[in-house]
């Protein structure tokens, strides 16, 4: 079979998979809602390949993400709503419209002004569609992962001047919120039915953590992925060392903690 490298070949493959006569049974059962989780998952796998600086894997993951776009476009085409060409035309038009300093006569002094113009153009686009929401927070998608939405909400609010001047007061706020969580745990231990309050206070802690990451110019998702990788790496090392003692379940919590510290120190010795 000849090598397929153009987008038209991919579109034809997707159309065949969705062909009611002889198509793939699994693909034919799907709809927008059932495919959406895969779309989100593929986007995260792209981010993971970037985090690992694995360009070979990135190529494959970008292909998987592109397939998601093609899949949605094929289903929309079957309904007569739009097709892949319409998707391309839409984003092409948007990119030209939102870069007037490249495709028009506007002048900018730097990346900051580009971002400001971008947001102004987005507001104008929403107004042209008849949207009445004039809040600085308008247009932030509710389908975003909540940590990402928290950061966007904070960034938008900051543009109006509603922001901490530095990381120091954010750290103070974090300590305050942790104290409030501790108070709710204490109340629960004393018999209080405060699950809702505990949830709210934990949410406040996470929200402030997202704000702290924003002040540090650190992406919350990337930071959490690194923490997850670190935990997984260390825990797997603990499991390997514990095998000679009957496995992790055979160790007391104190022994497990000692093993964790040993693995942690060994990593530090290797510069990890």
Q: How does this model look, in words?
A:
With 272 residues, the protein is mostly helical. The chain is 71% helix and 0% strand. It has helices at residues 7-17, 25-29, 32-51, 55-78, 84-97, 100-103, 111-128, 146-158, 167-189, 195-215, 220-242, 253-269. The mean pLDDT is 92.
Architecture blueprint of SSEs:
Layout: H1 7-17, H2 25-29, H3 32-51, H4 55-78, H5 84-97, H6 100-103, H7 111-128, H8 146-158, H9 167-189, H10 195-215, H11 220-242, H12 253-269
Helix pairs in contact: 1-4, 3-4, 8-10, 9-10, 11-12
The description of the largest β-sheet is: none
Strand content: under 5%
Number of helices: 12
Structural class: mainly alpha
Order of helices and strands: HHHHHHHHHHHH
Give the proportion of residues in helices.
Answer: over 70%
Computed CA radius of gyration, to the nearest angstrom: 25 Å
Q: Shape, please?
A: globular
Separation of the first and last Cα atoms: 46 Å
Briefly say what this structure is.
The protein has 272 residues and is mostly helical. It is 71% helix and 0% strand. The two termini are 46 Å apart.
What labels would you give this structure?
272 residues; mainly alpha
């Amino acid at each position: 079979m000849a090598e397929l490298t153009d987008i038209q070949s991919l579109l034809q493959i997707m159309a065949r998979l969705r062909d009611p006569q002889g198509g793939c049974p699994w693909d034919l059962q799907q709809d927008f809602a059932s495919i959406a989780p895969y779309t989100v998952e593929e986007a995260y796998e792209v981010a993971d390949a970037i985090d690992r600086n694995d360009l070979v894997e990135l190529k494959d993951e970008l292909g998987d993400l592109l397939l998601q776009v093609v899949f949605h476009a094929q289903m929309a085409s079957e309904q007569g709503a739009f097709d892949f060409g319409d998707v391309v035309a839409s984003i092409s038009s948007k990119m030209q419209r939102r870069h007037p300093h490249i495709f028009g006569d506007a002048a900018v002094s730097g990346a900051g002004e580009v971002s400001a113009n971008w947001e102004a153009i987005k507001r104008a686009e929403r107004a042209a569609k008849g949207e009445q929401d004039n809040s600085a927070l308008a247009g932030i998608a509710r389908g975003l992962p909540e940590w990402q939405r928290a950061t966007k909400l904070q960034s938008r609010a900051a543009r109006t001047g509603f922001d901490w001047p530095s990381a120091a007061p954010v750290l103070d706020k974090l300590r305050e919120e942790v104290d409030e969580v501790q108070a709710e745990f204490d109340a629960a231990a004393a018999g209080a039915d405060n699950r809702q309050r505990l949830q709210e206070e934990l949410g406040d802690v996470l929200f402030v953590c997202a704000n702290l990451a924003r002040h540090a110019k650190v992406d919350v998702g990337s930071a959490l992925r690194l923490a997850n990788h670190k935990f997984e790496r260390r825990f797997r090392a603990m499991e390997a060392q514990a095998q000679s003692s009957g496995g992790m379940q055979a160790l007391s919590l104190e022994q497990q903690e000692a093993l964790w510290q040993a693995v942690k120190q060994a990593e530090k010795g290797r510069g990890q």
